[in-house]
Every structure is written in C-alpha cells, then in structure tokens.
C-alpha cells in the first residue's frame, strides 16, 4: 500500500503481547544502576575537588610548553630574575631596545629577561609584587593611525577592558613613534597612564622616541636617566661591570643534513617548496612577477608598475590594503662582508640563546649558512646603532679605530656629535664601517647576533580586486642615492624588484615572498558618496584602486558619487604616471575632476596643496555640505601636514567656525573615517 505521500509501506501482522516484557524490565534495571553510580560518583568527585587543588593533565608536551611559556612570572621566579622588559614592535626596533635594557640590568644586580606580550599571560602582572625589587619595563611602538603593534594588541585591549589591581607593580615606559604622524606615541602614552590608574608605581617618567629625528639618541638619553631613577628607587648602585655578554652561542652545524638547513624561509623549513594557506607575516606566499614595467617616460629616475600573481593562492585583498614584500640584500654587499672579514660564507651554523628559559631560541631561522643569514635575515644597509659601535671596540686592533668607536658609543656631547655626523649624516652602514675602520674584524657569528633583522617592505596596493582578483599591483620608485662619502646607497627591496623581469619564454618566472596587510584606508560603503583624493607621486597608488572600483560599479549600472583627484609630479613629460588611464577615467565620467600640479614645468613651483587651497569652495561643498570623504596619501613630513592645515582653514572659513571648532570638525571626520591618511616619512 501507499500512504498519502506515495511512499510504499510494508504490510505487517500485529499480534497482542504483554504490556511489560522481560526485556523492558532488564533495561529499566540497567538505567537505574547507571544513574545511581553516576550521581554518587559525581558527588564524590565534587567533594574531593574541595579538598585538593584542581589540576588539568596536559595531553601533550606542547601543552606543557605553552602553559609554562605564557607565565613570565614563573620564569622570573625560577631563574632568580627581577627585571622583565616587554616590547611592542612592528619593525624590530622596540624588540632591540628591550634586549639592550635587559642586558644592562646585570650592571645593577637586576637579572633581566625580554618578553613578547603576545606570548605572555599579561594578567600575571598582578603577581610582580611577589618578587623583591622587581621592575617591568615596556618598549612600545605606535603603529599606523595610532594603533598598537600586532604583538601588543591583546595587552592593549586587556588594559582597556580590565580593572586589575596592579598595586606593587613598578614600571617604566619608552615609546617609539614619529612626530610627522598625528598620533605620535599614542599607545605608549596610554599604557603609561593606564598602568598608573590601575595602581602601579611609575619608577621613571615616560620616554618618547622620535624616529623622524634621532630615536637612538632619544633612547640612550632616556635609558641613562632610567638607571639613575632605578638606583634611587631601590637603593642600589651600579656594579661597574660591563654588559658585553653574548646573548647567543655559536653552534657548528657542518654535519647537519642539507634538507634541515634554512635557505631564506621566514619561519617554517621548506615553506617555499610546500606552500600552505593561510599566508601571513610568518608564512608569506611565493608570488610570481607577472608584470614589471617602467612608468616614467624620461629622466634619470625610475618608477615601476609591478603585478604579483596570486592566482590559486586563496589570498584575498581589499582596495586600500597593503602588500608586504620580503626583500633580499645585494649579493655584492654580502660578498664584501665575507671578503672584509675573511670568512667562509657557505659555512653552516646556528646561534642558540644562552638563556634556556627564553622562548626565542634563535635570532633568525637556524641552522643556515652565513650567506643565507646575510642575504635574507639581517639588515646590512641601515645605520647601525650605538650599541653595535660598543660591541665592535674589542675587535679593533688599531688604537685609533678603537678610540673612534669608543667615542661614538659614548653618551657624551662629543660622542653624540661624532655618531650623528659619521654614521647618520654620512649614511654609513656596517659594510662602510668595516671598510673605513680596516682594523675592525669582528667574528662573523657575533656580527650576525648584533645586526637587526631585515624587515619586509610595505606598499599600498594600486589595484582593485573587483577588476584584478588574481593579481596585486604596486607602484614603486627605485631608490638610489649618492652619500657624502661618494658611495651609492640602494634601496633593498626596490633594487631587487627592478631585477625581477618576467620572461616570455618557457623559463621559470621570477618570484618573491609576499603577504597582505589589512588597512583601514577604505572607500565609503555607498558608491554614491562623493570623495576627494590627494595623492602626488606614488601617493596615487591606492587611488588607482579606488578609481578602478568605482569605474567597475559604474559599468555595472550603479550610481557613483563625485570623484575628485589631486595629483602632482615634477614634469608632465617625465613622471606623470598612469596618465592615459587617468585621462580615460575623466573621459568616461568615472573621474569627475582631475587637478594636476607639475612642480618644475614653470618658474614657480606648484604643488597639489596650492590647488587644494584654490578650490576651497568645492572642497567644502564635498566634505561639508555633502558629507563626502577625503583621503590623503604620500609624504607625511610636508605634503600631508600642509593638506591638513588647508583643510582646517577651509572648514573654518567656509563653515564659519572658530579655529577650535574647525579642528574638532576635522577630528570628528577622522573618527567617522571620513578623513583618512595613508602616509609615510
């Protein structure tokens, strides 16, 4: 037969049976028995848990390591330390400063350790008071638009949302920032104030380092006064002992199998051969260079349009994001170091942390060859800091070289002047120092320990994923300049990129490691919202993506708002990048207005800020009357500052406000994400 839904049903014969069978009785007894034992067993466990502490048995060794690693208090207590230096670092400088402070602690009988707040349970700060004469120091960088660094984000949020009692915690804070940015050292200032609000004791006033001036000088000056405050607070004296103690020991790895040796990978061995999604700062994607073409029409400068192939990577980006590129040092400079130090660059070695409790076992991926370390892991082109001068003294056989290094390593006015002129003004890197002080012959493994890590370079993405979902575009100026010593210094990343030219034949295409960094530099959610874009030079990059996205929306039949672009360069016939594209967008109506400033095409220099000031009525109409969005991209030191001043002036005059009201209006625009800046110094 079939039921009403057409489903076939088997016919069965039904016979009468007793209401309760023997099987039912047996099942009932089993259920009652299980319930009885479960109830009384649970009660017994509950009682016993009140008599002895509850413990969780780790299921694996990694669980044990994770638990112990997160407790910096346990490490301090078990190793007899009283000083912990936390760092919030995006480029490695704050981490380097933290290491220098921890190392110097030995001179004041304060054994120190460096800690990454991301790897620690920061709630343990409440237990610092249990350690006699303890001190927590925070070296904290401010990043982006007044944001904490990635590794300090959780700590920052814990301070914001928590109300821990930090009475008994002694602390000091040093901030790393850049005065050309609006939110100068904002995170360090907040942490310093918040710790005090939670009951902690400030041992020394906050230090604010300015990377736009001389952050090394700022740090050294603050550090000297810090130790004076520490001595006064704890009633201790400097021991006078030098702290030139190696943090890492050399391990010979000549017998290590080739497949166990790093060859430039950022974190995971053989990660470039066996790529795994997701891709991030520790696991970049090895992208092929699909396009590399020159944008400048003439002149002796170069600007490259480069397209990274991300097809099949599962990577996704949004218009306005950044792409990070992992560079490689010049082989010429690397070979020069080997030659100057008479070293075998192909020897395989490892540097192992002498502090067994440290979570950072190696300064960079080990084991590897010296050539690999110098090529991929170490910064050999930046200006070395004063602590490197100090460490090089013992390797100088010529008394004159020794005295010069001692002077530059000192904090005297004469020493600071010499360091500023000889290192910073003359733009010497470690190769230049070894060339100009020929008696200085450091052990190569020690030099590898001292040099900072080579950092990835960030570029504004100059494409829209709506139009180019399988590629990422960047716009990069080739960096080359001659120093006062007649040396040519070259940008690490751009000079590498300039060499990566795709071929049209069957040869393997050039590749480079990349990953995507999210940004807050975003188009308005509604396509009809009017926008103004100010982007001279390569500041045009993200706006090329913005325009592409709005053009895509227009072609789909959606309404798009006004798009006004201010672009500037030196000469129209030399460095007007993407000229044909921009003119086409003007012709089809996507780009409403295109204001151009060619600074050297007439006797008097003309910049985008001059044009912005001339168009005060239009500027106020869009940002004031139509609640449009305004974007600035480019040089933070002058252009972005000048643009900000003009915007405040226009708001004040056209909006009939006082200076204070205009400043508040612009500040509110920033808070509402209607005024965004993607700038660099």
Automatic annotation (TrEMBL):
FAD binds at residues 457-460, 475-477, 481, 491-494, 680. It catalyses: 2 oxidized [cytochrome P450] + NADPH = 2 reduced [cytochrome P450] + NADP(+) + H(+). FMN binds at residues 89-94, 141-144, 176-185, 211. Its cofactor is FAD; FMN. NADP(+) binds at residues 301, 538, 599-600, 605-609, 642. GO terms for biological process: response to hormone. Residues 83-227 form the Flavodoxin-like domain. It comes from the Eukaryota. Residues 282-524 form the FAD-binding FR-type domain. It holds the Pfam family Flavodoxin_1. It is a single-pass membrane protein. Its EC number is 1.6.2.4. It is found in: Endoplasmic reticulum membrane. One of its GO terms (molecular function) is flavin adenine dinucleotide binding. GO terms for cellular component: cytosol; endoplasmic reticulum membrane. Binds 1 FAD per monomer. Keywords: Endoplasmic reticulum, FAD, Flavoprotein, FMN, Membrane, NADP, Oxidoreductase, Transmembrane, Transmembrane helix. The chain crosses the membrane at residues 20-39. Its main location: endoplasmic reticulum. The keyword Oxidoreductase applies. PROSITE patterns: FAD_FR, FLAVODOXIN_LIKE. PANTHER family: NADPH--CYTOCHROME P450 REDUCTASE (PTHR19384:SF17), NITRIC OXIDE SYNTHASE-RELATED (PTHR19384). In the C-terminal section; belongs to the flavoprotein pyridine nucleotide cytochrome reductase family. This enzyme is required for electron transfer from NADP to cytochrome P450 in microsomes. It can also provide electron transfer to heme oxygenase and cytochrome B5. This is NADPH--cytochrome P450 reductase. It comes from Rhopalosiphum padi.
């Amino acid at each position: 037969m079939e039921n009403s839904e057409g489903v076939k049903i088997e016919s069965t014969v039904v016979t009468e049976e007793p209401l309760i069978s023997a099987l039912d009785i047996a099942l009932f007894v089993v259920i009652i028995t299980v319930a009885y034992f479960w109830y009384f067993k649970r009660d017994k466990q509950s009682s016993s848990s009140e008599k002895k502490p509850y413990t969780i048995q780790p299921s694996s060794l990694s669980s044990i390591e994770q638990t112990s690693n997160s407790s910096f208090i346990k490490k301090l207590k078990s190793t007899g330390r009283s000083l912990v230096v936390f760092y919030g670092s995006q480029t490695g400088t704050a981490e380097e400063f933290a290491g220098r402070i921890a190392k110097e602690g030995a001179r004041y009988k304060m054994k120190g350790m460096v800690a990454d707040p991301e790897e620690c349970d920061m709630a343990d700060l409440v237990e610092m008071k249990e350690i006699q004469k303890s001190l927590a120091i925070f070296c904290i960088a401010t990043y982006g638009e007044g944001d904490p660094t990635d590794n300090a984000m959780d700590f920052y949020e814990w301070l914001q949302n928590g109300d821990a009692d930090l009475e008994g915690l002694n602390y000091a804070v040093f901030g790393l920032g850049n005065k050309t940015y609006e939110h100068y050292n904002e995170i360090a200032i907040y942490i310093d104030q918040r710790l005090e609000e939670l009951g902690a004791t400030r041992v020394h006033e906050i230090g604010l380092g300015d990377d736009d001036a001389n952050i090394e000088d700022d740090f050294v000056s603050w550090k000297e006064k810090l130790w004076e405050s520490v001595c006064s607070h704890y009633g201790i004296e400097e021991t006078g002992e030098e702290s030139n103690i190696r943090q890492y020991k050399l391990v010979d790895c000549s017998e290590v199998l080739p497949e166990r040796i790093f060859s430039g990978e950022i974190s995971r061995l053989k990660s470039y051969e066996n790529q795994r999604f997701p891709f991030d700062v520790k696991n970049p994607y090895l992208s092929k260079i699909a396009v590399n073409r020159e944008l400048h029409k003439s002149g002796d400068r170069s600007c490259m349009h480069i397209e990274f192939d991300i097809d099949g990577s599962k990577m996704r980006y949004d218009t306005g994001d950044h792409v990070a590129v992992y560079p490689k040092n010049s082989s010429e400079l690397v070979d020069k170091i080997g030659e100057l130090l008479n070293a075998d660059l192909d020897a395989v070695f490892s540097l192992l942390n002498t502090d067994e409790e440290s979570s950072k076992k190696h300064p960079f991926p080990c084991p590897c060859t010296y050539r690999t370390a110098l090529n991929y892991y170490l910064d050999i082109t930046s200006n070395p800091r004063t602590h490197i001068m100090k460490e090089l003294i013992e390797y100088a056989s010529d008394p004159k070289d020794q005295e010069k290094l001692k002077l530059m390593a000192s904090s005297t006015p004469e020493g600071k002047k010499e360091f500023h002129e000889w290192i910073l003004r003359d733009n010497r890197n470690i190769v230049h120092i070894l060339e100009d002080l020929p008696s200085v012959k450091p052990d190569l493994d020690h030099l590898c320990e001292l040099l900072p890590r080579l950092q990835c370079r960030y570029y504004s993405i100059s494409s829209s994923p709506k139009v180019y979902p399988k590629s990422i575009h960047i716009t990069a100026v080739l960096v080359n300049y001659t120093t006062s010593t007649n040396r040519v210094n070259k940008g690490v990343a751009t000079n590498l990129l300039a060499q990566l030219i795709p071929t049209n034949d069957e040869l393997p295409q050039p590749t480079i490691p990349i990953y995507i960094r999210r940004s807050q530099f975003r188009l308005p959610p509604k396509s009809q919202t009017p926008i103004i874009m100010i982007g001279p030079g390569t500041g045009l990059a993200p706006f090329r993506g913005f325009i592409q996205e709005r053009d895509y929306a227009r072609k789909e039949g959606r309404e798009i708002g006004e798009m006004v672009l201010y672009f500037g360069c030196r000469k129209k016939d030399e460095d007007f990048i993407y000229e044909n594209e921009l003119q086409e967008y003007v012709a089809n109506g996507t780009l409403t207005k295109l204001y151009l400033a060619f600074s050297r095409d007439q006797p008097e220099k003309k910049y985008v800020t001059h044009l912005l000031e001339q168009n005060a009525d239009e500027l106020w109409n869009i940002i004031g009357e139509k609640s449009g969005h305004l974007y600035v991209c480019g040089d933070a030191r002058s252009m972005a500052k000048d643009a900000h001043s003009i915007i405040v002036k226009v708001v004040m005059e056209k909006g009939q406000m006082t200076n204070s009201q205009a400043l508040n209006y612009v500040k509110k625009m920033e808070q509402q994400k209607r005024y965004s800046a993607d700038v660099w110094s």
